[in-house]
Structures are given as structure tokens and as C-alpha cells.
Design goal:
- This protein has helices spanning about 15-25, 40-45, 50-60, 65-70, 90-95, 105-115, 165-170, 240-250, 250-255, 300-320, 325-350, 360-375, 375-390; strands at about 1-5, 5-10, 30-35, 50, 70-75, 75-80, 85-90, 100, 125-130, 140-145, 150-155, 155-160, 175-190, 200-205, 210-215, 220-225, 260-275, 280, 285, 290.
- By secondary structure, it is α+β, with helices and mostly antiparallel strands.
- It has a domain at about 1-75 and about 100-180 and about 270-355: 3-Layer(bba) Sandwich (FAD/NAD(P)-binding domain), CATH 3.50.50.
Length: about 400
């Protein structure tokens, strides 16, 4: 079977789904191909802290109603050093900016529901996806569903299929340059239907390792512990996790912590990764296909969203006949934001975690920096403005096509 569209989108993660919805609102035809089934895509447990820029893009895409009903605005967060808490007042330090706690699972659900509502759901369980002629003016994508071969002829391809997808692998090795740092630990995460121990997130640096108290709603909590890469979740029964969280988060937070049975438990590795360029011919990369950040700074989903917004603006500029300037600038523009987020996520991870080779001097440097942040409003401003999200474009750079 053969069909024609303007933009073929590979991957039904947040980047691909948001890009598709933004293009739909702008009247641009597209199709989304996803190798997994819908239940798998909607069930993936991921991040849950949205920058205001991400919220604005979801509003623009027409999928923010439930977010505004159920999301939790957060105006600050807490840092803990061996149990002693102090607060970063993001709203005051940034002139009014804040973040919204709303799970990536919920964002994905809202975007998929919007696709079904407009009668154009993603093509789930698309196998054998292959990209063809991406360096030409007539690229195409082939795939199979239930053994039937399909072909999509298109003007452009958006590769939003994650770190292990086919999109980045379709760029010649002679063109692509990858930068990577793999961290020597992982995050053991637990999800439980219990009230959070605090109204805001707590990032804890403890002598035994990092811990994070987070949430998905007022009745569902998400906690994380830094563990060795080789750890097995089966070796961490719920009671052991709660005991370790109570120790690392400190007496004040532990006193407000409600224990309960886990409904999800897993260990996620941490890595920093960037692929350059994010465009080759008619193929554009977005989201995890092009970059991964450690979750410490809550930037992964937000970078995927900003990629989708930039790419949507570029396609809008092209198809409205105004300019191809944003298409031509997409890779450089996206990477400028990506590297700043990579820097922040790397720095915040280095500040809050215990590294296997950390000696007494390195530990003292961590303590000194945390002490400096606690006592310096200027340092807190830098932390807060990075956490709430830097602008898509610094002042004086190219405006969005939609302006």
C-alpha cells in the first residue's frame, strides 16, 4: 500500500506526537509511525516536570485542558544536604516563572487521545521501518503492519524514534558526530499511591548517595535512589527502599513520608548524549533520537518538546511560503538549547551524586558549592533560571516563524 503526506514522523513519543499535533493545527499533513503498540507507549513511566515553554506548546497544540485541571504548579524546590533542607524559590528568583508537575505518561495519553479524536491515530506496531533517499527531494519511508508492506512518500521526515531508533542510524557515519558520557550509577525508582512527603520536589545529596522525592499527583508519589549500575530491583524490596529514602532524605522529610506498596519499580541508567547535526538532507532529528540528558535536571521531556516546537515552526515557515530560514537553522538552533540543557543536567548531577572515585577533596568541593548556593542569591538565580527552562532563543536571535 502506498500513501502520500507532507511530513512523515517516526516515533510516537512526546516529540513525535507533539510535532504531529502542532502540524495538524497549522493545516500541515503528516503521519506518525510507531513500532510499539499503544498500550506500551502510554504505559512508559517517565519524567513529570514541565517547563512553562512546554506547557505553552501543549496549549498551542490544543491538548492542555486536563493538564490545567490536574497538573500541580510548583514555584520552588528543595535541596537537602545530609538531611538539612533549604528552598530554591524559583518564582521569586526568576521574576514569576514556575514549573508544572504532570507526568509524561499523562502528556502522551492526552496527545494520543487528540490524534484519535481527529481521526488520525498513529500507526502502531509498524515493523521494519526504513528511511529512503533522505538526501534527495523525494524521501520515503517503508514499513509493515501485520505482514503487509506500506510506503509513505513525503517531503520531509522527522526522526523522533528515540535513542535506539532507525532515524539517527540512517545518517551516514561520515556525517554524524556523537558525544556521550555514561554515568557510573543508575536511579532506582519507585512509584506508589501515597501522598508526597512535601509539596515540592526534594533533591538530596547524602553521604550514602543521591535521593529524590517527587510526585505525579497529590496522591501518587515518585521516589528515586542512586544505586550502582549492577543493582537488581529484585534485591530492593519496598521496605528496604523506604528505609534508605528515610535515611538519605533526612528526618524532616522522612517524618512526613507515607509508606506503601510500589506499583512500579525499575532502575534507569544515566547518560549524557548528543548527536550532531540534527538534520541531514530531508531528515530532521528530534527528542531522544538526537540527545539524552540525565534526569536530574528534568530536561529530557522539555527538550523533546522544544525540538518539536522549533521543527513545527520551521515546517510552518516552509509550507506557508514565508521562508525556509528556520528549516536551514533548525539544527544549530536546537543544538544551542540542547547543549545548555546538557551542561545544566551534567552540573546538577555532579553536584548531587556520589561518584565511585570521589575522594575527600571532591566531596569537600560538593559541600562548598552547596554551601555557596545556600548563601548566595546570585547562585540561586542561576540554578532557578536553568531549572524553569531557558528561552528557546536568546535575545537578538532569529524569531519564530509563527510571529
Amino acid at each position: 500500500m502506498r500513501q502520500r503526506t507532507q511530513v512523515a514522523i517516526i516515533g510516537a513519543g512526546p516529540a513525535g506526537l507533539l510535532l504531529s499535533q502542532l502540524l495538524y493545527v497549522a493545516g500541515i499533513d503528516c503521519v506518525v509511525l510507531e513500532r510499539k503498540d499503544q498500550a506500551y507507549v502510554e504505559g512508559r513511566i517517565r519524567a513529570g516536570v514541565l517547563e512553562q515553554g512546554t506547557v505553552a506548546l501543549l496549549e498551542r497544540a490544543g491538548v492542555a485542558d486536563r493538564l490545567h485541571r490536574q497538573g500541580l504548579p510548583h514555584h520552588g524546590f528543595r535541596l537537602a544536604l545530609d538531611g538539612a533542607l533549604f528552598r530554591i524559590d524559583m518564582r521569586r528568583l526568576t521574576g514569576g516563572s514556575f514549573v508544572m508537575v504532570y507526568g509524561q505518561t499523562e502528556v502522551t495519553h492526552d496527545l494520543i487521545a487528540a490524534h484519535w479524536q481527529r481521526g488520525a491515530p498513529p500507526v502502531f506496531e509498524a515493523g521494519d521501518v526504513a528511511l529512503h533517499d533522505i538526501g534527495s527531494r523525494a524521501p520515503s519511508v517503508t514499513y509493515t503492519v501485520n505482514g503487509t508492506a506500506h510506503r509513505v512518500d513525503c517531503d520531509y521526515i522527522a526522526g523522533c524514534d528515540g535513542f535506539h531508533g532507525v532515524s539517527r542510524a540512517s545518517i551516514p557515519a561520515s556525517v554524524l558526530r556523537c558525544y556521550e558520557r555514561v554515568y557510573p550509577f543508575g536511579w532506582l525508582g519507585i512509584l506508589a499511591d501515597v501522598p508526597p512527603c512535601d509539596d515540592e520536589l526534594i533533591y538530596s545529596n547524602h553521604a550514602r548517595g543521591f535521593a529524590l522525592a517527587s510526585m505525579r499527583s497529590a496522591t501518587r508519589s515518585r521516589y528515586y535512589l542512586q544505586v550502582a549500575q549492577e543493582e537488581n530491583p529484585l534485591d530492593w524490596p519496598d521496605e528496604r527502599i523506604w528505609d534508605e529514602l528515610a535515611l538519605r532524605l533526612g528526618a524532616e522529610a522522612a517524618g512526613r513520608m507515607t509508606r506503601g506498596s510500589s506499583i512500579e519499580k525499575s532502575i534507569a541508567p544515566l547518560r549524557s548524549f548528543v548527536a550532531e547535526p540534527m538534520r541531514h538532507g530531508r531528515l530532521f532529528l528530534a527528542g531522544d533520537a538526537a540527545h539524552i540528558v540525565p534526569p536530574t535536571g528534568a530536561k529530557g521531556l522539555n527538550l523533546a518538546a522544544s525540538d518539536a516546537g522549533m521543527l513545527a515552526d520551521a515546517f510552518i515557515g516552509h509550507y506557508t511560503g514565508r521562508s525556509d530560514a528556520l528549516l536551514d537553522a533548525y539544527s544549530a538552533r536546537a543544538l544551542a538549547r540542547v547543549w545548555k540543557a546538557e551542561r545544566f543536567s551534567w552540573w546538577f548531577t555532579s553536584l548531587t551524586h556520589r561518584f565511585p572515585d570521589m575522594d575527600d577533596f571532591a566531596r569537600r568541593m560538593q559541600l562548598a558549592e552547596l554551601g555557596y548556593i545556600r548563601g548566595s542569591q546570585a547562585a540561586q538565580v542561576v540554578l532557578a533560571e536553568n531549572y524553569v527552562g531557558l528561552p528557546l532563543d536568546p535575545p537578538g536571535t532569529m524569531p519564530l516563524a509563527a510571529e
